[in-house]
Target: Myb-like domain-containing protein
Amino acid sequence: MDKRPRKQAKTRRSTSEAEVSSIEWDFIKMTEQEEDLICRMYRLVGDRWDLIAGRIPGRKPEDIERFWIMRHGEVFAEKRNKHRTKNS
Model:
């Protein structure tokens, strides 16, 4: 068996890009139609955010993914509840 290390994918990282903690994310407002389309597309194509964003004008794949994580992620359950009570 070959003992050479596997090649790793090259990752480019710009020094100007600042990483943002997911805890600091703001809620993304989507219309009911957008939410419905995202859910239906997710069932069809999974987490291929670029395909889903292509169906919603003005939305980037990163926005769609962040919306999905914040809507369906367990980590954000407490934050969602606080947001709902604040807006009620």
Q: What stands out?
A: Residues 2 and 8 are 16 Å apart (CA to CA). Residues 13-17 have pLDDT under 50 and may be disordered. Residues 29-87 form a domain with the Arc Repressor Mutant, subunit A fold (CATH 1.10.10.60).
